[in-house]
Amino acid sequence: MKLNHLDLFSGIGGFHLGFEKAGFEVSSYFSEIDKYAIDVYKNNFKNSKYVGSVSDVRATDLPKIDAITFGSPCQDFSLAGRRKGLGGVRSSLIAEAIRLINECKPRFFIWENVKGTFSSNNGADFWAIIQAFTNIGGYRLEWQLLNTKWFLPQNRERIYLVGYLGDRSKGQVFPIKEAYDNPFKKVRNKTRKSTSEQNTHSRTISSRIHKMGNDDTYIQVNSATKKGYEVAKKGDSINYSNPKSETRRGRVGKGVAQTLDTACNQAVIKNVTNNKVTNNCITEAIGLIRRLTPIECERLQGFPDNWTKYGTQGEISDTQRYKMCGNAVTVDVVEAVVKNIINIIK
């Protein structure tokens, strides 16, 4: 099936790639302001067309659009942010997406955003957005909170809202259930040489490291729990942002990465080397914790290896690669949503 796709706040093309994996032949017109993301998008989708900032896009400049997708900036809705809601500068950009839906009248649209949108301003912001979609007229709306860990080993909860032309007689898009097949096989660890920066993270957050036997090494990570710590073992993830915080909890992911952010404050525990052990407590562990690699972040979001390594202008820094992966939508989740949409609109 062929699809003319307007990809707003496009990032590195997670929606586009999800459409392709679901079986569409996609012609994308994409809007983005981050120069690195634009470069990566152009490099991976060479037939796509860049259409500028979302505020400059007009339906009269486009062909007939079949689908509009947008993961509008989420900082003003995020539980980790300042929660300015719809009054925030970033979140107000959703109005531009709604304008384009009204102008283009696509067969369907998909909006992705953070879980905090549900609770922003006691829920008033979410329902204001629903009302705005409803006012366009003709679209049936469905939404669900989906988690990347149902498909890949990353705990990433996001709202997916779908609007489509038609009625319920053809079925529903949601609910979507856990449907992965051993996702841990999809994200294989890559060996990466330790750097002084990574070793600093190790010494900062790993204040209590214990060894019980040859292989059973674990870390007590400071956390605001009853015990005052969480236990992390080889293969677990650790979020090392604000390592000295006395109120932070949920730092350890048990065999699953926590939500990727733009700075990649994520580490994994690996084999211990060059240890000094005193009374069953490791006083020094070099390379015990290492930061996730850009490739691992790409895999955790469902992208092929080195998807973000190159743009049309050449190689891209790890800093920008981490940022782009943290801002991306998860390809496998998009694919699952789109496959259900196909059953309704085809």
Structure notes:
There is one protein chain. The chain folds into two domains: 2-170 and 329-345, Rossmann fold (3-Layer(aba) Sandwich), CATH 3.40.50.150; 196-292, no CATH class. The chain has eight helices and 18 strands. It has helices spanning 14-21, 35-44, 94-104, 124-136, 196-205, 294-300, 318-327, 331-345, and strands at 2-8, 25-30, 49-50, 67-70, 108-114, 139-147, 157-165, 208-211, 217-222, 229-233, 237-239, 252-253, 266-269, 273-278, 281-286, 289-291, 310-311, 314-315. The strands form four sheets. It has a seven-stranded mixed sheet with strand order 3-2-1-4-5-7-6, sandwiched between helices. The chain has a five-stranded antiparallel sheet with strand order 10-9-8-15-14. Strands 12-11-13-16 form a four-stranded antiparallel sheet. α1 packs across α8 (331-345). The termini are close together.
